[in-house]
Inverse folding.
């Protein structure tokens, strides 16, 4: 029998998992630590209101006082709704990587129009980005979606800098998403460039947006751009939020977590389970168990079912392969290649790991939270529990 956590649905197949004497896993303890840091009470509400007022002061006489990355999903749409209600003046930013579902596009348009929020869309060079995605498939790593995540971070910083915006609102929510193991989702500029150099056609990225360590230093310490994880301060019940968005903004549910992108849906529902034996639903539902939004029994029942049906998987696979220009044989060869890790390729991982403590101290003086990639690497939570 596979050993699993006594509270959540995570088991020994999850990287870096540990259990205490009572059988509670370290991911549940990370959740408890974050709940202590961001409790939903009068004090946290006061702190949140202070952050909002500071954003208003810092953005005075500017067209926008904050920037929000939008995908058409529930989290980013809810942030738009909340920020507008708070009287802030946001600019919505969307990355078009060529994989938007029609539902996601409609959700973005309806939300920004009804809330009267300006929307800026950045379109990636499709041919280059497609080649980069194929390169990551050939690299045989589970963090195959990192190019999109990295590009989003890069354009958020770039646009914030161009518009003179000091605050970027992040959509991550530990109460519904949990903490993804670093081996499932690591990404830095050197890693992306090295994978492309090894497996890409042109060997060198010319148009893809990258965030180098030098750029991070510039954006965060020279331009003083700050990341704010707004959902950490808000009560967030997934089902109730979806009902609110449907009623107020005409938002339409697209299915599973991050399924607003057809490529992400394919990666999480097909490639990760089949090739790497990874089911990210385990992490998401475990967080929801900890936040009392679902019971363990209910989560187990859901996870026993495949992410998508065989028919849907077949149609999705055909669509993705055609769009990428891959034959069935080429794809099957990729699926049969030995799974690897980001640590099999050149990265900044060891350098960042070596200096994560002083970096975190400096960031704590200038920003409410670490940039996404550094947040993923921060191991202080594990050491405190």
């Amino acid at each position: 029998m596979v050993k699993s956590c006594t509270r959540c649905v995570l088991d020994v197949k999850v990287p870096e998992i540990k259990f205490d004497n009572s059988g509670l896993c370290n991911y549940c303890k990370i959740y408890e630590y974050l709940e202590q840091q961001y409790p939903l009470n009068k004090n946290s509400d006061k702190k949140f209101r202070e952050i909002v007022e500071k954003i208003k002061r810092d953005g005075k006489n500017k067209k926008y006082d904050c920037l929000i990355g939008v995908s058409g999903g529930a989290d980013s749409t809810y942030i738009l709704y909340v920020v507008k209600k708070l009287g802030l003046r946001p600019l919505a930013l969307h990355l078009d990587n060529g994989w938007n579902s029609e539902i996601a596009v409609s959700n973005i348009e309806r939300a920004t129009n009804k809330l009267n929020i300006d929307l800026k869309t950045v379109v990636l060079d499709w041919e280059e980005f497609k080649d980069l995605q194929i390169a990551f498939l050939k690299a045989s790593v589970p963090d195959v979606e990192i190019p999109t995540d990295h590009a989003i971070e890069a354009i958020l910083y770039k646009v914030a800098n161009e518009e003179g915006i000091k605050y970027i609102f992040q959509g991550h929510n530990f109460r519904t998403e949990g903490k993804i193991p670093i081996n499932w989702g690591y990404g830095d500029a050197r890693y992306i460039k090295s994978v492309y150099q090894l497996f890409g056609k042109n060997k060198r990225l010319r148009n893809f947006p990258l965030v180098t360590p030098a750029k991070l230093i510039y954006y965060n310490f020279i331009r003083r751009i700050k990341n704010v994880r707004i959902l950490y301060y808000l009560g967030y019940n997934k089902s109730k939020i979806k009902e609110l968005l449907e009623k107020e903004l005409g938002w339409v549910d697209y299915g599973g977590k991050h399924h607003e992108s057809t490529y992400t849906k394919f990666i999480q529902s097909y490639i990760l389970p089949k090739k790497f034996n990874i089911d990210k639903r385990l992490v998401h539902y475990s967080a929801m168990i900890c936040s009392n939004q679902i019971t363990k029994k209910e989560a187990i029942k859901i996870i026993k079912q495949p992410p998508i049906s065989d028919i849907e998987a077949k149609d999705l696979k055909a669509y993705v392969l055609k769009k990428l220009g891959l034959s069935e044989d080429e794809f099957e060869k990729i699926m049969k290649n030995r799974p690897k890790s980001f640590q099999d390729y050149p990265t900044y991982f060891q350098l960042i790991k070596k200096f994560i403590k002083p970096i975190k101290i400096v960031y704590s003086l200038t920003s409410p939270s670490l940039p996404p990639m550094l947040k993923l690497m921060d191991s202080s939570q594990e050491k405190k529990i």
